[in-house]
Amino acid sequence: MSCFSGDPNFCPECGNVLPLPGAPDFIKCPRCEFIIPVQELANQVITSSVVFNPLEPMVSTGETEEDSELKGPVIDRRCSRCNKEGMVYHTRQMRSADEGQTVFFTCIHCRYQEKEDS
């Protein structure tokens, strides 16, 4: 007794995807060895379609360039200009791949920027 039924693309015993019919007069499931004669699939139309995600217009968040500077994790680092704690940082690979990253720090109070080669 079959566990699965319906779609001719799948094995009725284990649900595995069946291979396309070839030269032999049967289709053999590669998982459970179930054999189905090709004549059982005669006069059946198998269709497929490709669906792409629709293109959506870019939505502006209203964020300015100054606001984007202050995004990122806040760390306990003292600003060398205003001497207050709290800076955000981001990293970039500015030099060759075998050297460390460059870390850019921005003060959340005065927006002073520092960089550190690590």
From TrEMBL:
Locations listed in the record: Nucleus, Nucleolus
Binding site for Zn(2+) 2: C79, C82, C107, C110
Secretion signal, residue range per the UniProt entry: none
Location, primary (coarse class): nucleus
Binding site for Zn(2+) 1: C11, C14, C29, C32
SMART domains associated with the record: ZnF_C2C2 (SM00440)
InterPro entries: DNA-dir_RNA_pol-M_15_CS (IPR019761), Rpa12/Rpb9/Rpc10/TFS (IPR012164), Zn_ribbon_RPA12_C (IPR034004), Znf_TFIIS (IPR001222)
Molecular function in Gene Ontology: zinc ion binding
Zinc finger C4-type: from-to: 11-32
Key words, A-Z: DNA-directed RNA polymerase, Metal-binding, Nucleus, Transcription, Zinc, Zinc-finger
Gene Ontology CC annotations of this record: DNA-directed RNA polymerase complex; nucleolus; nucleoplasm
UniProt domain TFIIS-type: residue ranges: 75-115
Domain of life: Eukaryota
Its job: DNA-dependent RNA polymerase catalyzes the transcription of DNA into RNA using the four ribonucleoside triphosphates as substrates. Core component of RNA polymerase I (Pol I), a DNA-dependent RNA polymerase which synthesizes ribosomal RNA precursors using the four ribonucleoside triphosphates as substrates. Can mediate Pol I proofreading of the nascent RNA transcript. Anchors into the Pol I active site to monitor transcription fidelity and cleave mis-incorporated 5'-ribonucleotides.
PANTHER family: DNA-DIRECTED RNA POLYMERASE, DNA-DIRECTED RNA POLYMERASE I SUBUNIT RPA12
Entry similarity comment: Belongs to the archaeal rpoM/eukaryotic RPA12/RPB9/RPC11 RNA polymerase family.
Name of the featured protein: DNA-directed RNA polymerase subunit
Organism name: Coilia grayii (Gray's grenadier anchovy)
